[in-house]
Amino acid sequence: MELPGTNGAVVETRLFIAGAWRDSQKSFEVRDKYSGDVVASVQAAAPALVSEAVEHCRRAFDRGVPSPYERAEILYCAASLARADQDRLAATYQAETGFTGSDARTETDRCIQTLTLCAEEARRFDANETIPISGAPGPAGRFAFVMRVPIGPVAAITPFNAPLNTVAHKVGPAIAAGNPVLLKPSAHTPLCGALIVDLMLRAGWPADLIALLQGGAEVGQQLLEEPDIRFYTFTGSTDVGRVIQKAAGLRRTQLELGSIAFTIIEPDADLDRALPLVRTAAFRKAGQVCTSVQVLLVQRDVYAEVRDRLVALTETTPFGDPAGADTITGPMISVEAAERAEARIAEAVAAGATILAGGRRDRAVLAPTVLADASPTVAPVCEEMFAPVVTLLPYDTLDEAFERINATPYGLAAGLFTARIDAALQAARGLRVGTVHINNTSSSRVDLMPYGGVKDSGFGREGPHYAMHEMTEERLVTLTP
Length: 481
Known about the structure:
This protein is α/β, with parallel strands linked by helices. It has helices spanning about 45-65, 70-85, 85-95, 100-125, 165-175, 190-205, 215-225, 240-250, 270-285, 305-315, 335-350, 380, 400-405, 420-430, 465-470; strands spanning about 10-15, 15, 20, 25-30, 40-45, 130, 145-150, 155, 180-185, 210, 230-235, 250-255, 260-265, 295-300, 355, 360, 365, 370, 390-395, 415, 435-440, 460, 470-480. The strands form six sheets. The chain has a seven-stranded mixed β-sheet, with helices on both faces. A hairpin with a 2-residue loop joins strand 16 (about 360) and strand 17.
């Protein structure tokens, strides 16, 4: 695949089905999120092609897959190829997402790290657990152990906001665990997924054990109707997650879904450290991250200081053209998404909220925005915004802050800035979220850690080691002499 936008040309990219690059009768366009120019034309998979891909991968799986050692070598090679191809990956990422050069460099670095972690985990795949059955009456002399085996064809359905690293977090563990993988990237950002599939093929992963199925919701729906899919891994909205879980039935899933991400600032917090982190976590990727700081809970004694300092930081946040060297906030994924966020801000203002900074929109670019005095019933407080908008809310006691977070239907991640170990432990025990970050924001993440939520934020965990556990089955084996 050529680089999007090279010499103004429109890139054309194909499907990968049944071990070969394929054409389709349907296609869709990918546009530059800032200029609106068409950068690519992408082949879309018809239902018959989806069914063919699933059946082909299932048959190949039944014939056997590479050994754990071979899988590790393939993933190490993929990581090496990604490093050599890093400029191309970053340019493609930036062309189709509208994110900044800094985001592109971070994403490609993390993608390489994730593939490397998957390779390391593949080497340890055959570790088995012995079961002390001789401690029970009767089975003296018998031996028992639990082994993990690949689960079978994995459908990986990925979002637009991390089209390299989130794809790596799904494709990499599936391969490390010995599963065929069928990748359906977001139709907003399909090109990075195509590059990842190309990397895996060049690294030596068997062509019969991978498929690239481009398209929109109709492709995802067709995957849900395929009984040979044994595992669904999905990152996206809670509403779509519910559809997937219902369709999956007794088949396994890993769902990383919506969120209202909170970060708390206690009066003893180091504001010089906390506020720049909050600014970045709220406004990078135009706030389009599940764990972007959407609500900043500030203890009332330091509320005025935090408000004034965060507003000053926000007003100096460079935004607009993602090609700008200093730009932090580029365009949202579409003009429609930016219009929706702008309308929600207007509704909050009509209900009494105050815009302290930002609030302006130019096409798909929404200026970094800080709100205050918001009603608890308006969207920026009680619905996922997925936009560069942070709302300040004061609180008096830490219990009050925890109650506000726990009252939402979501539970992905939260942050707390404090110097008190008792407050930190109170948060660890009391917050109903998948991850609690002490002295960091809700958006902190290291790729080897378990990552996922509770409640309407989904279940199951990403992170190579943990995702491989999700994508395998336990098998008990007993031996009787």
